[in-house]
Write a structure and sequence with these properties.
Blueprint: E1 10-14, H1 17-27, E2 32-35, H2 40-50, E3 57-66, E4 76-84, E5 90-92, H3 96-105, E6 110-117, H4 124-132, E7 135-139, H5 142-145, E8 154-162, H6 173-197, E9 201-207, H7 213-229, E10 233-236, H8 243-251, E11 254-257, E12 268-271, H9 278-286, E13 290-293, H10 297-311, E14 315-319, H11 325-331, E15 338-341, H12 344-349, E16 358-362, H13 368-381, H14 395-408, E17 413-417, H15 423-434, E18 439-442, H16 450-453, E19 458-463, H17 469-480, E20 485-491
Parallel strand pairs: 1-2, 1-3, 3-8, 4-6, 6-7, 9-19, 9-20, 10-11, 10-12, 12-13, 14-15, 14-16, 17-18, 17-19
Antiparallel strand pairs: 3-7, 4-5, 4-8
Helix pairs in contact: 1-6, 3-6, 10-11, 14-15
The protein binds iron/sulfur cluster (SF4).
């Protein structure tokens, strides 16, 4: 009988003595290293001996041949899937992105990708054929050795000792081998951290999470413009603050620019979900640009409030973060009549021309708790201050904060999917931290530090309003490579809000 997944120690299989020695030196006793011998037949025999052993997780470590042209000697390839040459079947290692990310943080060059196990040393033309099949590297043992895992967490790390440009039978063989063995040794401590993070877990999902109606609309605007007008389509600033969304739209023909002067005359330009100031709209009109506005209607509502208060002679305190695109756009509605307030201390410094005519508005993605505290300070100093007609902090921001607070109470750790420039995602991290739970912002599974996971049994998971739902799936998948994962969800409310497209795009 094999022990439960995650329990029991780490066994690392390395084919040859030199490889085993490099891994052993790196591991420093935090795992057992066994030689498998060279080639698939010996590896298969070793796997059969190991299968019913008392270890808890299996790693395969050794040198490998690079297929991808981008690889250099000493690079590490972490196998996302490992197959035998010519076989459609493969073994997947879902935690590969976690290990590859951790190796990169340790200063090593590491890529997660497919590995093919072959039964002979590969010639150059064979490697080129494999490259077409998207494998990054070849080896001669991993597919066989992985059969020993039998449901336990498993991983494969191959250090590249030769590449198509630096083949094995060439003067590069010795430097290639030295570089690969050095990388294997340096990977040892990271493999130990991977093993320490292996355990069965519960993943507690916050509901709602991920895309809001404003983000869905903004992405659809760019997609429709690409469909109707063809590429290139220029987008001023990131359409929403998420690297996955931006990369995907770039691939489909969108060009993201910081300012309008980067957009050619007469071209189509989309304004992002965060909104723009009237000055930007005028500049686009003067240039004759075909401007399509993807500003979220809830941001437009705050702009309208700013215009109204300013027209009525109020000095408007905008509670928000300096430099955020939404704040710049809103301030631009009435620059003379608006004051940016970031903290309660800023309230004390505010000097309105008429203290009886003060109003306040908020950035839509703030922490409700923090912004409420600043509004209270403002009302204390200016008791007649007028607020927005309805909450400026939008429904999506509020719902996601309530939901993350609910899961934080039950979690050992909270992961928030979102990019570093996403205001609402950062507020989710802060909300979970205020609830007393360690919380981290991650763009994807590769950002998860293995040390965060060690000793955790319940991981709370949510995503900011600009983070795609698919990223949540990728994170769960990666965690499942560290042991069985049981997923449940805490839904605090459901959302049904939808926004229509701008009239120029309605067909
Ligand atoms: S977070 Fe709120 S304001 Fe921002 S795009 Fe989404 S719905 Fe609109």
């Amino acid at each position: 009988m094999s022990p439960g997944p995650g329990s029991g120690g780490l066994v690392v299989c390395a084919p040859l003595r030199l490889e085993a020695r490099a891994v052993r030196r790196g591991l420093r006793g935090r795992g057992e290293v066994r030689r498998s011998g060279y080639g698939p037949a010996r590896a298969a025999r070793r796997a059969a001996e190991l299968r019913d052993g008392s270890f808890g997780k299996l790693a395969v470590g050794g040198v490998g041949g690079g297929i991808s042209a981008g690889l250099r000697l000493g690079d590490l390839v972490v196998g996302t899937e490992v197959s035998r040459l010519g076989s459609a079947a493969s073994v997947t290692c879902p935690s590969a992105p976690l290990l590859a990310g951790e190796l990169r943080r340790a200063g090593l060059r590491a890529t997660a990708g497919a590995i093919v196990t072959v039964d002979h040393l590969f010639r150059r033309d064979e490697r080129e054929r494999q490259a077409c099949d998207r494998a990054l590297a070849v080896d001669m043992e991993s597919a066989e050795l992985l059969t020993a895992a039998a449901g336990r967490p498993s991983i494969v790390v191959r250090a590249i000792s030769d590449t198509p440009r630096r083949p094995v039978f060439s003067p590069w063989a010795v430097p290639g081998g030295i570089a690969a063995l050095r990388s294997l040794r340096l990977a040892g401590p990271v493999l130990a951290r991977w093993a320490a993070a292996c355990a069965p877990r519960r993943v507690l999902l916050a509901g709602p999470r991920s895309f809001c109606a404003g983000v869905e609309r903004a992405i659809e605007v760019v997609e429709r413009v690409l469909e109707q007008r063809g590429s290139p389509v220029y987008v001023r600033k990131q359409i929403v603050h998420n690297t996955h969304v931006v990369t995907d739209l770039e691939r489909r023909g969108a060009i993201f620019v910081d300012e309008l002067d980067e957009v050619p005359d007469g071209a189509t330009v989309v304004f992002s979900a965060h909104g723009v100031s009237p000055a930007v709209r005028s500049a686009a009109a003067v240039r004759g640009l075909d401007a399509i506005d993807a500003t979220c209607p809830l941001v437009s509502k705050v702009h309208a409030e700013a215009r109204r208060f300013a027209a009525e002679g109020y000095q408007v305190a905008l509670i928000g973060h300096a430099g955020h695109e939404e704040v710049e756009g809103t301030l631009g509605e009435a620059p003379q009549a608006m004051t940016l307030i970031e903290t309660a201390a800023d309230v004390a410094r505010m000097e309105p021309p008429d203290p009886s005519r003060v109003a306040y508005l908020m950035q839509t993605t703030l922490s409700a708790e923090e912004a409420g505290g600043i509004a209270d300070a403002l009302l204390e100093r200016f008791p007649s201050a007028r607020g927005p007609g309805s909450d400026d902090i939008c429904y999506a921001t509020t719902n996601r904060q309530v939901a993350v607070r609910a899961i934080a109470a039950e979690s050992d750790l909270v992961l928030v999917a979102g990019s570093a420039n996403s205001s609402n995602s950062k507020r989710l991290v802060e909300t979970a931290q205020r609830a007393g739970t360690p919380a981290y912002l991650i763009d994807g599974p590769e950002d998860i530090e293995l040390g965060w996971l060690a000793g955790t049994s319940v991981v709370g998971l949510t995503a900011g309003a600009s983070a795609p739902p698919a990223v949540v799936g990728q994170i769960i998948d990666a965690l499942s490579g560290l042991g069985p994962v049981e997923v449940s969800e805490r839904v605090v409310t459901t959302e049904s809000i939808r926004f229509g497209l701008p009239k120029e795009l309605k067909q």
